[in-house]
Structure formats: C-alpha cells, structure tokens
Amino acid sequence: MSDSVVDSSSTHGPVESPDVVVVGAGLAGLVAATELTAAGRRVVLLDQEPAASLGGQAWWSFGGLFLVGSPEQRRMGVTDSAELAFDDWLGSAQFAPGADRGEGPDRHGYAWARGFVDFAAGEMRDWLHGKGVRWFPLVQWAERGGYPVRSGADGSAAGAHGNSVPRFHVTWGTGPAILEPFVRAALDARAAGLLDLRFRHRVTSLVMTDGAVTGVRAQVLAPSDAERGAPSSRDVVGEVEIAASAVVVTSGGIGANHELVRSRWPRSAGHLPARMLSGVPDSTDGLMIGVAADAGAALVHEDRMWHYPEGIANHSPVWTDHGIRILPGPSSLWLDADGNRLPAPLFPGFDALGALQHLTERGDDHSWFVLNKAVMETEFALSGSEQNPDLTGKDVRLLAQRVLPGAVGPVARFAERSPEFVWADTPAGLAAGMNALVDATPGSRGHVDPASLERLVRLRDEQVRTGLGKDPQVVATAMARRYRVDRLIRVSPPRPLTTPKDGPLLAVRLSVLTRKTLGGLWTDTSARVLRADGSVLPGLWAAGEAAGFGGGGVHGHRALEGTFLGGCLYSGRVAGRALAAELG
Ligand SMILES: Cc1cc2nc3c(=O)[nH]c(=O)nc-3n(C[C@H](O)[C@H](O)[C@H](O)COP(=O)(O)OP(=O)(O)OC[C@H]3O[C@@H](n4cnc5c(N)ncnc54)[C@H](O)[C@@H]3O)c2cc1C
After folding, report:
1. SS3 label, residue 428
2. Does the Cβ of 250 fall within 6 Å of ligand 1?
3. Which of 104, 163, 336, 574 has the fewest CB atoms inside 10 Å of its own CB, making it the most exposed?
4. What is the dihedral of CA 202, 205, 211, 212, to 10 degrees?
5. Dihedrals φ, ψ of 224, to 5°?
6. CA gyration radius for the chain?
7. Which residues contact 155 (CB under 8 A, 6 or more apart)?
8. Dist CA 564 CA 548 (whole Å)
9. Would you call 207 helix, strand, or coil by DSSP?
10. Is the minimum distance from the CB of 67 to ligand 1 under 6 angstroms?
C-alpha cells in the first residue's frame, strides 16, 4: 500500500450532517466505516494522527491471520475444524463459569468468540480473497500451549491453552496488504462524498443528549509531518463538535501507555518492570477508552492483556521505546534473570502470557534466550511488516533466503548491531557477557552464575545427544519437526549447543514488549456499547482493540495469535453492518 494515496488536506468537501462519527482510522475503524458507506451512510472518520499513519497498528503488523480449515492448511497436511478451533479457544480463554449459558461479564466475550471462530472457519477467507488478499502458503504454528488437556469441573472451561494445529496464515504483503482493500474502499467512499477522513482530530469527549451519545468534541491538532508511526505533537489549534446519530469507537488499545498498562496488570501476577519496550506506536494511548467510560460506557476485563516477554530494542526506532518481538522457534534455552530455566511448558513459542507472568511474578525486568549461531539462523524470525521485507514486498527472490543457510537480513542486522545479542565461545564467557550487560543497565537486576550455565548447557546437550531423551523441551522440539513447515524453515535439527561448527554461543536479552489489550469497552453481539448494568448506552458502538476485539474480551485470558487483525476485521464488520441496519 503506497503511503502517498491519502492526503490530509482533502480536496473533497466535508460530509455535512454525518450519520456516524467513527473515532480511529485503524483497521477496525476502516472496516466499520467502509461497511457503513457501502450501505449508503454518511460517515466522518477521525484520527489524531496525520494521514501518513492511516491504518494504525495494522500497517506495522506481520499480517498473521487465524484461519481454520483453510486450503493452505490442507496443503500442508493439517486437519482442522471449527469444533477443534473452538475447543482450543475455550481452553485458552478460560472464560468465567456461566459464560456459555449467557451469564456473567464474559457472556458477550463468549458469544463473540463463537461468532469469530465460525467466521475464521467460514466466510473470512473468501471475503478477503474476494478483495484480493492472498496468503503465504507455509502456515505457521504459533502458541502451541503444551499443557495437559483437561476439562473444568462445571464443563465451562474445556481443554487447555494453545493451538492444536498450525493456524497462523501470514498475509502475502503482510499488514499493509490487509489494509489495502479497506483503504481503497475508504478513498472510493470519499470520492463518492460519503466519507470524510479528518486527520489530526483528537476526540476528547462525547456529546450526550437525554442519556444518548449524539456526537463528539474534538481538538484539532497542529499539522504534523511526522512519518508513519512516529510520535506527533499534541499542540491544539482549534476545537470542533460534530453531531451524528451514532458514534463508533475504534481507537485501539492501551499498549503505548505504560503507566496505564502497569496500573492494570493483575496484582496476582506480580509487577511489570519499570523498563519496558513498546510494540505499538505512541498513538495506542488508550485515552479514548476513558473518554467513553466518562460517558457511561462499561469497561470490562481491564487486567487482561497480551504483552510479550521476547522483546528486543529496535536499533532503528520509529516510536518511543520501540521494541521488536522475536518470533522464536522452540530450541533456545529460556532463562530468567538469575539464569534458572523457565519451567515446562514455557518453551519459546508455547505460552506467551504464561512465560510473561512467570517473570513478572519473580520481579524480573528481563530474561534470556541461550542458543548458538546456527539455531538463531534457523529459528529467529521478527514480527512486523518492516522486519519482513521479503513477505511485505512480495519479493520471491528475497524470500528464498529463508530456506538457504544463514540468517535473513533483518535478523542478521540485529545480530551485528544489537548490544543485547551477546556472543561467546564458552558458557562461562557467555555468562560474563550477560552479567556485564545487566550491570551496564541502570535499575536492572540479576546475575547468571557461569558454572550453573555451563552445567545447564551440558545437561541439555547430553539429552539431545541421546537422540531421544527425557527433557520435555527436547522432546517437544523433535515433535515439532514432524510438521513439514517447521522442518523446512522454523525448527533447527536437534543438535548440541556446543557444536563448534554451529558457531559461537549466543545469549539474547529479552525485555517485556507491550502490545495488545484483551479487555475494553463492553459490547453486546451487535457491537453496541453497554453500561455497567448491562443495558445499552444509546448511540455508542465499539469495535477492534478498544472493545477487546469484540464484546469487551473475545479472547478471555489468552490468545491463539492472528486473532487480533481477524478480531478487528470481524468486529468492525459486525459493527458497521449492525449500525447501518439500525439506522434504517
Ligand atoms: C508490530 C505489530 C505486529 C502485529 N502483528 C499481528 C499479527 O501478525 N496478527 C494479528 O492478528 N495482530 C497483529 N498485531 C495486532 C494488530 O495489528 C492490532 O491489534 C490491530 O491492528 C488494532 O487495530 P485497531 O483498529 O483496533 O486499533 P489501532 O490500529 O490502534 O487504531 C486506532 C486508531 O485510533 C486513533 N485514536 C486513538 N485515540 C483517538 C482519539 N481520542 N481521537 C482520534 N483518534 C484516536 C489512533 O491514532 C489510531 O490510528 C500486530 C501489531 C503490531 C504493532
């Protein structure tokens, strides 16, 4: 998607007396707005950022979509079904008892989950395919779980966390390619006089008339030439009030607002560290969710979040504290700040939240992957459109490097430039480098004992040499290679870390990377925002991350990955269609 397609100083006239104001021009807002304009409604779409950032987080995303029973899965020999996917979903969500009977605060999240899984197993792929979206054929296996299958005593909490099969479909062209059809539709709607795209408009309150939302008040911010994703000023040059029959909130989550993230982190899971990286642009500030709450909207599950423990500082930052997530294969040893191995099944790529909570319960501000150069070259991938120029640029020649020896370009650049990549020939040397990095980081805590690390690596290598072994991680890694995509590009053949020809040992310091907000504005199954007593707050609708991707928390406690973009597509579509129908 070209960045020059949208100009902020639109030559198109403003839409007078809009039917709907949509707040936030990310993926959810674009989908809702284009569904509304497709039904003939007049829409004003506001965003606090300049036109350069149109599309919000989705542009930066890896473009991974949770699809179920797809042709891509079948071609890879994967058998999947809506029933299996929903069981996996419930095992991960752990919705509160009664949700399946329409009771309690999770009742709408549960209903959204059922709807979303059916959409992911049904209409979603054809709908997107019809808009020109295509997928990389090698389906990836994210969030593998690894806990024993069980059933809750009351039957409401079936199964255990994780994807039983690979479901993460990377879009050909990554995030920008998912946005592309919706940006195109928005520009068409603007040309038809149905959509007014107003950038640098920051909504600060909702207008209420007789208990119903009837518009927004917004600050007009000074023009900004900030590049895509970069922080822009909050200098105010004016104020406007826009009246409409309904307002849709699609303002994203809270991930860039570390203060809010820390204050909402569940106390039972310890503390998030003072030093964290941001996996989202500064625009993901969460303030609009508070604006909606001030107008009477109920917020639910605010302590449910989806941040990653595997963040590394970006050597070329775009936004504040810009971090990149390593998408790890399963072979690296994962150690806490004091060099202890994380317990099973907290292996890389198995349970993001479980690993994070383990570390925050300990009070760690970092953890470590310990591996060697050969494992890094096979298993390290990075999340984000800009970190995957081959897939984003649809460059087949560049893509071929993924199956050739050596790290792909972006990983190689981190390996060369990042001070968080510590290299050494021996475990003792590695421990010395790890400790030096911690000592050089103000406020950081932790010490890796060289002799303990040496023993840990030796015991792990001993297990690998058996060709079988009892170590659950070694067994899980060998199992993963039964899947042909893992064998081809994601999982290293099991080999001792101390194999000289596999290159030096490597320790990568990992920091908490904030990303997704799983709770949010409580909505019913039509995306109408609810008050705390469960009644509808007239005139207010919400979709995307601001609404916990549907219902105030479609994921429950944990996510299966690829469900965020999908959740924005689904909830934006539901909101747009239901509101268009209600407007008559
Ligand atoms: C690097 C990266 C990789 C990712 N990879 C994946 C992936 O592979 N698969 C997946 O499923 N998900 C992925 N995600 C997550 C996914 O991209 C997001 O959850 C999703 O795009 C959120 O969309 P949204 O429309 O709800 O919010 P956003 O994209 O955050 O858009 C919200 C918009 O609202 C605007 N706004 C906020 N407040 C106001 C206000 N008061 N007034 C006016 N405007 C306001 C913001 O400026 C912003 O433009 C990734 C995210 C990132 C950052």
Report:
1. helix
2. yes
3. 104
4. 0
5. -135, 140
6. 24
7. none
8. 9
9. strand
10. no
